[in-house]
Amino acid sequence: xxxxxxxxxxxxxxxxxxxxxxxxxxxxxxxxxxxxxxxxxxxxxxxxxxxxxxxxxxxxxxxxxxxxxxxxxxxxxxxxxxxxxxxxxxxxxxxxxxxxxxxxxxxxxxxxxxxxxxxxxxxxxxxxxxxxxxxxxxxxxxxxxxxxxxxxxxxxxxxxxxxxxxxxxxxxxxxxxxxxxxxxxxxxxxxxxxxxxxxxx
Length: 201
What we know:
Layout: E1 6-10, E2 14-20, E3 23-31, H1 35-48, E4 54-61, E5 67-71, H2 81-90, E6 96-103, H3 110-128, E7 131-135, E8 137-145, H4 149-158, E9 162-168, E10 171-179, H5 183-192, E11 197-200
Antiparallel strand pairs: 1-7, 2-3, 3-6, 4-5, 4-6, 8-10, 8-11, 9-10
């Protein structure tokens, strides 16, 4: 997809619209981190557009290229989900979901017309948003004495690690995402701190 230290995704949700012979296609593009988010977004859009005849979608997650799903939601096979996914892939994006809501306008568009409409509106939705590069993070769990909090946080900040979860009592437990391209340095620095337990989560 991209270099294995970075990946491309979209910064925030965006919307675009495309009309063809009375049919209206509205594409919603979302950055998502996991499948559960996709289910929420789809349920919300079905509620928002109860009169739409189709809610077609495609998403891709992860960096290995194997986590994706497409749905034609009643449109002829291969006319909606695949063209939408094609747009995500042509921009080499991941962690992206596009749902296209279709209102039927009375005229059948035929297979080529449908493919064109879904492909176009998906591309427009991606153009409406901004594409960003994100660091690939590897998750680690740290455990240490409360007195070492400052030293640990210094390393976390220095290497642009992301704090995912934090529990602070007498012993602190911290879950962090470590940028893959700085992994060795970060783990070594943390292991140099006496009494800090570092394990991959």
